[in-house]
Structure formats: structure tokens, C-alpha cells
Amino acid sequence: MQTLIWKTLDSSAKTEALARPAALLAPELLESVRQILSAVRKRGDAALVEFTLKFDGVSLGDLKVRPAAIKQAWDNLPKPEQQALAVAKANIEAFHTAQMPKAIEVETMPGVVCRREPRPLDSAGLYVPAGSAPLVSTLMMLAIP
User: Fold this and answer.
1) To which H or E segment does residue 97 belong?
2) 113, HSE (Cβ side, Cα atoms, 13 Å)
3) Which helix (H) or strand (E) holds 87?
4) Where are the beta strands (DSSP E) in 13-134?
5) What backbone torsions phi and psi does residue 119 show, to the nearest 5 degrees?
6) 138 to each of 92, 106, 130, how far by Cα in Å?
7) DSSP secondary structure, 48-63, as one string
8) Cα-atom radius of gyration of the chain, to the nearest Å?
9) pLDDT tens digits, residue range 92-114?
10) Which ranges of the chain have pLDDT less than 70?
């Protein structure tokens, strides 16, 4: 890991330090992604389980986390972490509740009524990248709203 001392860097070095890494657009990488997407489209959850084993080394019996496992994970967290997560959850809920879409109905001309009615999804899949530091905040920002 490279350590940079910000106050010692010139303007060019600061710009370079803040730049995002260039995307890897190698043709073989793009082809691998295409094959993965195709497999998931064709085989659904079975492909996800296969790729989880291949890339993460984890064998999943089911993609859904059992409620008992969720409770156990929560119970094993130290109280300060539980409190921090509870505060974050409340903040996320407050922010997103204020943005809840409302049904609207407009008569654009006599006899022509246009309507927008928001409806919840029955279910959704979320992807939380793990990498070197899986971020609970990413999961919360995806799942809570």
C-alpha cells in the first residue's frame, strides 16, 4: 500500500492520487462478463450459486438468508455496532420516507385522465460487492429504501 503525504504533493500528483482507476476493457474480460450474464439469464439462481462457488469459494444451499441466521448475526454484534446501525437505519428511513412517491391524477383535457400510481415490488435482488472491505452501508442504502 502506497502512503501519500497530501501537503507534500504538487498539483499533478494530487490529481493523479484522486483519479479513479481506469476501467479494464480487455476484450477477454468483456466476453467473460457477457457469458456470465447469459448464464444468469438462462439458468437464473442456479447460475448465481455456481458463480458464487467459482469466484467466492462459497457453496450456497439457498440464496435467501434464513431469519434465524440474521437474528444470530445481529445478536453477535457488540452493542455499540448495533446502536450505530440503528441510528443509520433511522436516518436512511427518514430521508427516503420524505421522498415516497405519491399517486397523482390529472385531467389533461375534458374526459382524458392521466394517472401515475406507485406500486411496490414483490421482491428484489441486491448486489453488495465484497472485495477487500464489504460495506454494510452499501447494503443498508440498497435494502432499506
Assistant:
1) helix 79-97
2) 7
3) helix 79-97
4) 104-109, 112-116
5) -135, 140
6) 11, 37, 10
7) HHHHIIIII----S-S
8) 23
9) 999 999 999 999 999 999 999 99
10) 1, 22-25, 131
